[in-house]
Every structure is written in structure tokens, then in C-alpha cells.
Backbone:
């Protein structure tokens, strides 16, 4: 279980998260929604360990243990994965080179041998096929010059290869057309089976039609303002967030 | 080189190559048969010349150079050289070893161990056509494959070439390529030069495996002033590799080598070097090529060591259709200032040049590109393409680019791009969130950054350079 307890977070002296409480359980799909600027990406980045944010109060607990002090790579080795809203670009490093290295570092953390070149190649091929993507995609430089949609595809390919225990997907649906969204959602469902934790951060209802959430939380102005089940999504679609803030 | 295979190294190959810092940094006890007093005097220039039994004209050259050296001032631009005390440097040291042994067994044990640690015998067995090893001021080993010697290829220590090929040396040694009065350090070099390489490739002979020389400084406060003279006759081809290193001391040492390359009509030369001097070395080096009609000159220049490097390999495109390519990479860590770049003079019609340079700086290091492309009046239809980038791995470091273009002809095509960037926190976070350590993330970013350049290199060279940079990053991060 990933539990966020009374989390307060600052950036450059400005408080963005003001006491967030959230419980993410194994085998459950969780959705997080909220207006622009409410702090959703901040929360995702802080859980992954971005150094630019300061936790002033509260805990992030993974199976009961605080991970507040862990570096991003240590968190990755504990099974955390973040699909970025705005993934970085790395010129000159191919997706396949990078992914093999990333996979091997998590295998090493689990005490496993590095994957052979051949096995990796086959794994990559299989995952690319599931994404309806040509093999040449993995030989492109990591996100370099990618369109918004390609970047999201790259994130999901990484998710599929690394096969993490906990996935936080920050606006993975934005910038993708309907067909691509369906493919992405299918892949998320495939990778994130039983015993895994998924947090989908989104603005829109459409991804949640493909990846059904068990629970929905709404973040407004740095705090969880409301929690509910999947039906809450329709209400939001109709009425926006204004009515929650008034309550 | 047209028929040299260029294969980018794969990760697997990189992992098996073991280069470690100790191999460069270890030092031997001094065993010399002669060690000059510190400082540069006329007496010393005469002593070097008489030791080598040089003809009169070479002695005169040394003495003239000494006068020029005294008159010339230090450069007023670039890195600060005020900490370099030229009067404390030891300009001439003869190791206790046979000169130009041609079997490894004849090299004294301590020097041989260094030679082996640097991986040279293996390289010689596997991919070199000839190999030379200079220790302090003298060449202790020189060997050329018989089939190349049979074709008339000459590959000698420069001292020996003065004796065996006096006409060629007299005609080409510091005359029209690097004149002794080019600058203060070319004059210093001419006054006290010792050892180095002489290569002559006869007409239409294509040497398809590289010839290599390795220059090693061992003693404290030492200086090395090897001279390399390469003549690639009409229609001939050669690839020459130079490597250099020195152990780390607290006192400064000085390297002021000189490389002159004459690329004749329809000939091709590739010169590659990885300079890995210790971080107390002033590396003030001069390299120049004169390229005749249809000739091709390729420079591959890697700089990872030294305190200060000032090095601007230069191609003078003298004949029509002459062409030059330059690939440069410089790595500046703590306390290092790498000031390097390429100079090209276009003096004839249809000449072309291409320059690709990448600087990396970390831990307060400064990496600076300083180059010039000068297209003279009459060099119609010439082309030049310059790209120089700098990458800073942290906030303390600096990357500078000062490319300049001097174009005196209208009918030409020139393009020039410079980009300076920094490793972003977001980029590191992104890679680390996938499980890479900070060290691995930086290495990946750097490897990606230099990738366009690495893929242009011959494999052995690319592997060594990659590994060297990884080592430097490992020493800097954490
Ligand atoms: N580097 C920064 N400096 C100051 N404020 C920031 C910085 N980054 C984000 N913010 C602010 O933090 C708030 C939350 O942003 P974010 O977490 O991206 O929201 P969301 O993902 O919900 O749209 C916004 O008001 C944003 O302006
Ligand atoms: Mg966001």
C-alpha cells in the first residue's frame, strides 16, 4: 500500500500541497482529478522524489515505511514508476539503450542477472507490437523531438518494459487521439494487473472509461476536497469543480 | 580513411575494455642517464643538438628559435599562463634505455610495465601497422610491420630521421607548415625538440592499418617536446594515432609538441589523438597540415587531461578541391581549462571544411571552443560547416564557444552553429526515476551528447574515449 499522510510541500517558499491524505491500495485503480494548478503534478513528482520540492510536513509511506528520504532511483527500485506529464528529452541516447540500462538496474536491485541482449530485444519487440508501434521507434533518441502523443507512447513503452508495482500516470491521456488513447489504456490494463497500484491523474473522463477506477479523489488547492467512486466522474463532467469548492 | 572500417562501439564491447585511472597515474622511479638543469639556455640547445649528432643547419635552427622564443610574448588571450614557470621546467631528460629498440623485450622492465599497462602491445598486435613509444625525451621503442617497410613506408623516431633522411627533413621540418616563429611555444619547441615521429608514405601507397606513437612523461617538472613530421606523398593514404599521458604530481610539467603534416596531391591523412596528460600539465601544442590539390586531411582530437590545454589544429587548404574534417572533444574537470578548436584557411577554389566539436565541463572546469575559418579572396565555391557545442554538467562549470569566420570571397557557402547547454535537474530526475543512479544518468546524457561524434570514430578509438570520459565522470560525481 502507498499511503500519503498529511503531506505539505513547498517550492521556492510557496506552499503547494497543504496536507494531502491519500491511500492507494494494491489491486486498485485510483483516479486523481482536479483543476489546473491544484497540485496534481506536484504530488506525483514528490512521490517520485523530485529534488526541487521540499516536504515540510507529512509522510509518504510504502508498505508502512517512509520513503521521504529516498532518491528517485531508490524509489524506482522499490517499484515506483511515474509517467510524466512533460517527459524530458535526451538527445543521442536511444530508447532501447536507455531502457535496457533502466531494466537492468531494477533487475540488479532485485538480485537478478542483467537481461541478455537477445532477451531484451525480444521483450522490446513484443511490447512495441502491443503498442502498435514500429520497431524503429525504440531506436529513436529518447523523446527527442517527439510529438505530445509520441512522448506518451514512450512513457507507456517504458511502463510496459519496467513492469513496476506502482504506476502514477500523470495526464497520460493528454495529447493523444482516441485510437491512441485506447491502445495506451489497453496497455495500462495489461501491465497493471492484480496486486499492483495505479494512480491515474487526469482532466478528462475518457481515459477512465477504458481504465476503470475503483476510487476517485479530487484535489483542489493543495488538499483532497472530495473522494468517491467512479460515478463521481460523471458529476464532474457535468458540473465542473465549482460546486465542490463552495461546499 | 576510405577503407578503414568505422563501426560505432556497442555497449557490450565497452564493458569488456578495462581502462583505469591507475594505469595513467602510476609513476616509475626516475632512472635517467642525463637530466638537464631546469630552464632553457643556449648551452642546453647546443647540448641536445650535439648529443644527437645533428647537422649544423638543425643546430642553427635551434639557436634561431631560442632567440625568437625570448622575443615573443605569451598569448594575451585565452587561459592564464602566469602560473607556468618556464625556468623551473626540465627540458631534456634521457631515460636509461636503449634508443628505438624494436622488440619489446629490449625495453627496460620498469618502462616496459608502463607500456603494458597502457595497453599498447595489445593494440600493436591487434590493429596497428607500426608503433612507437617515447619516454621522457627519447624514443625507446619503434617498430614497423615488414610488409609496410617493404612498400617503402618510413616510420621512424624523428631523431633518427634527421640522420637517415636529411633532405626531406631539411625541406619540411618547421619551414612552410609550422614556421618556428608562429608563436612563443612553437619557437620553444624548435629550440629543444627531441624525439617524435617521422612518417613518409610513398606515392600511391595506401596504408590501411594505423601507425601509432605514444608519448609518456614520467619525471616531475618534466617537459616533452616531441616533433611529428608526416609526409603523405601523392595519392597515398595514412592513419596516424598519437596517445599521451603522464602521472600526477603537484609541480607543473609542460608539453609543447609540434605536428606537421604534408598532404600531397590526391593524398589522405587522418591524424587522431587522445591527449590524457595529468592535471598538472600545461599542454601548449601546435598541429598543422598543409593540404594540396584534392588532398584530404582529417583531425580527430580528444582532450581529457592537463591543467591547461591550448591547442588549435589547423588545416591550410592550399590546392583546389582540398578538404578537411575536424572532430574534437574536450573534457574539463576540476581545475582544468581546455581551450581548443580548429583553424582552417581556405586558399584555393572548391575547398571545403567541416568542423564538429563538443566540450564538456564539470566541477568548475572550463571548456572553450576557439576556432577560425578564414576564406581568402579567390577561394571561390568553397564550403565550410562548423558546429561547436558545450555541455555543462553542473552550475559551477563553464562552456564557451568563440568560433569565428573570416570570409573574403562572395561565392562561398558557410554555415555555423553553436549551442551551449546544461544538464537540467528535470532531465536527471527523469532518468533517475527509471532507476538510473545519478552517475549513470549523467553518463547517459554525456554519451548521448557526444554520440554524433563518437559514431564518426574508428571503434578502438571511440571505445577508449568513451571509457575515459566515463572514468572522469565517475571521479567527479559523488
Ligand atoms: N517551479 C515552480 N515555482 C513556483 N511555483 C510552481 C512551480 N512549479 C509549479 N508551481 C505552482 O504549483 C502549483 C501546482 O502546479 P501543478 O502541480 O503542476 O498543478 P496541476 O498538475 O494540478 O495542474 C501551480 O500553482 C504552479 O503554478
Ligand atoms: Mg499537471
Residues:
Amino acid at each position: 500500500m502507498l499511503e500519503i499522510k498529511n503531506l505539505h510541500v513547498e517550492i521556492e517558499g510557496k506552499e503547494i500541497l497543504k496536507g494531502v491524505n491519500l491511500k492507494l491500495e494494491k489491486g486498485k485503480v485510483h483516479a486523481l482529478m482536479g483543476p489546473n494548478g491544484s497540485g496534481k503534478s506536484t504530488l506525483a513528482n514528490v512521490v517520485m522524489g523530485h529534488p526541487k520540492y521540499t516536504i515540510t510536513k507529512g509522510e509518504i509511506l510504502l508498505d508502512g515505511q517512509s520513503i521521504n528520504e529516498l532518491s528517485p532511483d531508490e524509489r524506482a527500485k522499490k517499484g515506483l514508476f511515474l509517467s510524466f506529464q512533460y517527459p524530458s528529452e535526451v538527445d543521442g541516447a536511444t530508447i532501447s539503450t536507455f531502457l535496457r540500462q533502466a531494466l537492468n538496474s531494477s533487475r540488479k536491485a532485485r538480485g537478478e542477472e542483467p537481461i541478455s541482449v537477445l532477451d531484451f530485444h525480444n521483450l522490446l519487440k513484443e511490447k512495441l507490437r502491443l503498442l502498435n508501434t514500429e520497431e524503429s521507434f525504440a531506436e529513436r533518441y529518447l523523446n527527442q523531438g517527439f510529438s505530445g502523443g509520441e512522448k506518451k507512447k514512450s512513457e507507456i513503452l517504458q511502463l510496459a518494459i519496467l513492469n513496476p508495482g506502482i504506476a502514477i500516470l500523470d495526464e497520460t491521456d493528454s495529447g493523444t487521439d482516441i485510437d491512441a488513447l485506447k491502445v495506451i489504456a489497453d496497455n495500462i490494463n495489461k501491465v497493471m494487473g492484480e496486486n499492483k497500484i495505479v494512480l491515474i491523474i487526469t482532466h478528462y473522463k475518457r481515459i477512465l472509461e477504458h481504465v476503470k477506477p475503483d476510487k476517485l479523489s479530487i484535489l483542489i488547492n493543495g488538499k483532497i476536497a472530495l473522494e468517491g467512486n467512479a460515478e463521481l466522474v460523471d458529476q464532474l463532467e457535468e458540473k465542473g469543480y465549482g460546486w465542490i469548492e463552495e461546499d | 580513411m576510405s577503407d578503414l572500417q568505422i563501426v560505432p562501439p556497442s555497449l557490450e564491447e565497452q564493458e569488456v575494455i578495462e581502462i583505469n585511472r591507475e594505469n595513467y597515474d602510476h609513476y616509475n622511479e626516475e632512472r635517467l642517464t642525463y637530466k638537464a638543469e631546469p630552464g632553457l639556455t643556449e648551452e642546453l640547445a647546443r647540448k641536445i643538438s650535439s648529443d644527437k649528432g645533428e647537422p649544423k643547419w638543425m643546430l642553427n635552427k635551434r639557436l634561431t628559435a631560442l632567440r625568437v622564443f625570448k622575443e615573443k610574448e605569451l598569448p594575451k588571450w585565452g587561459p592564464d599562463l602566469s602560473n607556468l614557470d618556464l625556468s623551473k621546467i626540465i627540458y631534456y631528460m634521457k631515460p636509461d634505455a636503449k634508443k628505438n629498440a624494436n622488440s619489446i623485450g629490449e625495453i627496460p622492465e620498469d618502462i616496459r610495465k608502463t607500456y603494458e599497462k597502457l595497453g599498447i602491445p595489445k593494440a600493436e598486435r591487434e590493429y596497428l601497422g607500426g608503433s612507437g613509444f617515447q619516454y621522457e625525451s627519447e624514443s625507446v621503442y619503434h617498430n614497423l610491420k615488414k610488409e609496410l617497410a617493404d612498400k617503402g613506408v618510413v616510420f621512424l623516431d624523428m631523431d633518427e630521421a634527421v640522420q637517415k633522411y636529411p633532405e626531406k627533413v631539411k625541406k619540411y621540418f618547421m619551414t612552410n607548415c609550422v614556421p618556428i616563429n608562429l608563436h612563443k611555444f612553437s619557437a620553444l619547441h624548435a629550440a629543444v625538440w627531441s624525439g617524435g615521429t617521422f612518417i613518409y608514405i610513398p606515392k600511391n601507397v595506401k596504408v590501411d592499418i594505423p601507425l601509432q606513437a605514444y608519448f609518456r612523461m614520467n619525471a616531475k617538472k618534466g617537459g616533452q617536446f616531441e616533433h611529428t613530421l608526416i609526409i603523405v606523398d601523392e595519392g597515398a593514404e595514412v592513419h596516424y594515432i598519437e596517445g599521451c599521458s603522464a602521472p600526477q604530481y603537484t609541480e607543473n610539467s609542460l608539453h609543447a609538441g609540434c605536428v606537421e603534416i604534408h598532404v600531397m596531391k590526391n593524398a589522405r591523412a587522418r591524424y587522431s589523438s587522445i591527449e590524457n596528460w595529468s592535471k598538472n600539465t600545461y599542454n601548449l601544442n601546435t598541429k598543422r597540415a598543409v593540404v594540396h590539390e584534392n588532398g584530404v586531411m582529417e583531425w580527430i582530437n580528444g582532450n581529457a587531461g592537463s591543467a591547461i590545454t591550448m591547442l588549435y589544429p589547423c588545416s591550410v587548404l592550399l590546392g583546389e578541391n582540398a578538404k578537411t574534417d575536424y572532430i574534437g572533444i574536450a573534457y574539463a574537470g576540476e581545475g582544468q581549462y581546455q581551450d581548443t578548436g580548429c583553424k582552417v584557411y581556405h586558399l584555393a577554389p572548391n575547398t571545403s571544411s567541416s568542423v564538429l566539436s563538443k566540450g564538456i565541463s564539470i566541477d568548475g572546469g572550463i571548456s572553450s571552443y576557439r576556432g577560425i575559418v578564414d576564406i581568402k579572396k579567390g577561394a571561390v565555391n568553397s564550403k565550410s560547416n562548423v558546429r561547436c557545442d558545450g555541455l555543462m554538467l553542473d552550475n559551477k562549470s563553464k562552456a564557451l564557444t568563440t568560433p569565428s569566420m573570416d570570409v573574403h570571397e562572395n561565392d562561398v557557402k558557410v554555415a555555423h552553429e553553436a549551442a551551449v547547454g546544461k544538464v537540467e535537474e528535470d532531465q536527471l530526475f527523469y532518468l533517475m526515476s527509471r532507476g538510473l543512479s545519478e552517475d549513470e544518468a549523467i553518463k547517459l546524457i554525456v554519451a548521448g551528447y557526444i554520440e554524433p561524434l563518437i559514431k564518426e570514430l574508428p571503434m578502438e578509438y571511440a571505445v577508449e574515449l568513451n571509457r575515459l570520459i566515463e572514468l572522469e565522470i565517475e571521479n567527479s560525481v559523488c
In short: Chain B touches chain A at residues 11-12, 424-427, 429-438, 440, 444-445, 447-452 (CB under 8 Å). The first strand of chain B starts at residue 32 and ends at 35. Residues A 40-41, 85, 171 surround magnesium ion (ligand 2) (CB under 6 Å).
